[in-house]
Write a structure and sequence with these properties.
Number of helices: 5
CATH architecture: 3-Layer(aba) Sandwich
Structural class: alpha+beta
Oligomer: single chain
CATH class: Alpha Beta
Number of domains: 1
Number of strands: 11
Low-confidence stretches: 1-9
Strand content: 35-45%
CATH superfamily: Gcn5-related N-acetyltransferase (GNAT)
Shape: globular
Length: 213
């Protein structure tokens, strides 16, 4: 197994979960169009170390964020990604990953909770996003531009809720950065009544979340 278009052999073993639809910018216009993407679960033994290694050796890559280096490769963590790659997920191409999240099951008051540790995307709505640099061939001339996407965070969270809905977890919890609080509120997360800095989505609201997103 190896990363595509990379001479350095690295192992990936991503498991595709479902197809999804995101928004992709039409070059040189303010408009977006639907684009197919895939939600994958990353293998902690292979994918997370490989992503960290890739980010370390590609300092200008869109994947070089604090999120990558904070991903945990322990046995309790589950990590997911959205990619525009269509096949061969055991040879994952990091340049086609548009969003990543990871979390683990914790217990609070004897109830299992899925605690979301990191969520990072390349959405155009993310002020910290670093977009892929591509070349567009126009009239025989290659013109560099920054490709932009939308809806990545929402679709990534939708996939996560579907996965957690099939687990024993009674809720999803997270500690949002200040600039992301409105994003989670729009999705339906509420501030925890017990923990001031924690947002939560209760199991009773999972199905409603899935239907709306």
């Amino acid at each position: 197994m190896r990363i595509q278009n990379n001479k350095t052999a690295q192992s990936f073993n991503a498991n595709p979960i479902c197809r999804t639809v995101i928004k992709r910018n039409i070059p040189f216009t303010p408009f977006y169009t639907n684009a197919q993407a895939t939600l994958v679960q990353l293998d902690r033994r292979y994918d997370l170390p490989a992503l960290t290694k890739y980010a370390s050796s590609h300092p200008k890559s869109a994947l070089t964020t604090d999120c990558i280096f904070d991903l945990r490769a322990d046995e309790h963590t589950r990590a997911f990604a959205i990619t525009i790659q269509k096949t061969d997920f055991d040879e994952l191409n990091p340049e086609e990953i548009l969003g990543i999240c990871d979390g683990r099951i914790l217990h609070r008051n004897d109830k299992p909770i899925f605690y979301l540790q990191n969520l990072e995307t390349q959405s155009a709505n993310n002020p910290l996003a670093v977009h892929h640099k591509k070349n567009l061939e126009l009239l025989g001339i290659e013109i560099p531009y920054k490709e932009k996407f939308k809806n990545i965070g929402r679709k990534l969270m939708l996939g996560l809720v579907r996965v957690v809905n099939n687990s024993e977890a009674e809720a999803i919890e997270l500690k949002p950065f200040e600039h992301k609080k409105e994003f989670y509120k729009r999705l339906g997360f509420e501030q925890s009544a017990q923990l001031y800095d924690v947002f939560e989505l209760q199991r009773k609201n999972f199905q409603d979340f899935i239907c709306k997103n």
